[in-house]
């Protein structure tokens, strides 16, 4: 994602709970600054008690009304009720969601009818490169098992 954004001439801001790496064309900022300055906020983090509802009424209030939220990570990172409210009120320009707070989502979920929302069925991980990597890992696991030294063993 970073490489694509940089290739498009975007300034890339990032927030992390861990010590940020140096370089790479990324500027590390606080979450508040990231939300206030960003035109596109993409989520790339695990779901933990600390990240649940990372995007909520309070954090949305910090964002530009012209901003877009993109979530291909975990649905509960976003408080969906707060997101819907903000989208309907014009406090956010739009959202792209590959995951939702509850899966499968309810048939009457308002996100289905919003012109400023793009939904995909939790398939963001299914790109060609990912599939090739999975096949490579699988082949390595089979070879190791047949050689008598299985890897990634779970007891």
Total domain units: 2
- Largest sheet strand order: 3-4-5-6
The percent of residues in helical segments reads: 25-40%
Identify the CATH homologous superfamily of the largest domain. NAD(P)-binding Rossmann-like Domain
Strand content bin: 5-15%
Q: Output mean pLDDT.
A: 92
Termini gap: 36 Å
CATH class value of the largest domain: Alpha Beta
Which radius of gyration do the C-alpha atoms yield?
Answer: 19 Å
Envelope shape? globular
Secondary structure tally: strands:
6
> What is the string of SSEs from the N terminus onward?
HEEHEHEHEEH
Uncertain segments: none
* Count of individual helical segments: 5
Q: Could you say what the CATH topology of the largest domain is called?
A: Rossmann fold
Characterize the largest beta sheet: strand count, sense, and whether it forms a barrel: 4 strands, parallel
CATH architecture group name of the largest domain: 3-Layer(aba) Sandwich
Structural class: alpha/beta
Structure description:
With 155 residues, the chain is an alpha/beta fold. The chain folds into two domains: 2-124, Rossmann fold (3-Layer(aba) Sandwich), CATH 3.40.50.720; 125-155. It has helices at residues 2-7, 31-37, 57-62, 80-89, 128-146; strands at residues 12-14, 26-28, 40-43, 68-71, 94-97, 117-119. It has a four-stranded parallel sheet, with no helix packed on it. A two-stranded parallel sheet has the order 1-2. Helix 4 (80-89) links the parallel strand 4 and strand 5 (94-97). The radius of gyration is 19 Å and the shape is globular. The relative contact order is 0.10.
